[in-house]
Amino acid sequence: MSRIPRFALLIGLAGLIPFLWGAATLTNPALQGWSARVLGSALTGPFVLQTYGIVILCFMSGALWGFATKATGAVAATGYALSVLPALWAFFMAQGRPDSAIVALLAGFIALLPMDYMFWQQGLAPRWWMALRLLLTAVVAACLAVGIVR
């Protein structure tokens, strides 16, 4: 793995803000109350974890699709097929009650890592991709875990 470009790292870290906010509002009752009053319940606690988790799994499908476009033949076909799985998982498994949805999202983000690795191994993702994905996934998983154990 190589060094993550500064801007990619900064944007990736900024993308963690809603996950961190969701976990923070679950662990701090005063913050949760303020957030619910000021921002609304959709941007507080388990609801922000669920909604944003769905958005990001769908975003990751798009990223993987982009990597598949660099391949040809059977490798491309496999890449395209795998790239839609995170979005389909989010659509079918992460709807409904936040409790079960957050568990499904955690499973989805963990299952995404082997796909990231496959694209990276094939040279379709940037050399720094796995370093970024491991870092971001660790934080996302920790935040979703807070949503499960709260």
In short:
The chain crosses the membrane at residues 46-67, 100-119, 131-149. This is DUF3429 domain-containing protein. This protein is an all-alpha fold and 150 residues long.
Account of the 3D structure:
This protein has one domain. By secondary structure, the chain is mainly α. Helices cover 79% and strands 0% of the residues. It starts with 5 loop residues before the first helix and ends with a helix. InterPro entries: DUF3429.
User: Which class best fits the helix and strand makeup?
Assistant: mainly alpha
Uncertain segments are none
Share in helix: over 70%
Number of domains: 1
Shape: globular
Biggest sheet details: none
List keywords for this structure.
150 residues; mainly alpha
List the helices and strands and how they pair.
Elements: H1 6-14, H2 17-27, H3 29-38, H4 45-68, H5 73-83, H6 85-93, H7 98-121, H8 129-149
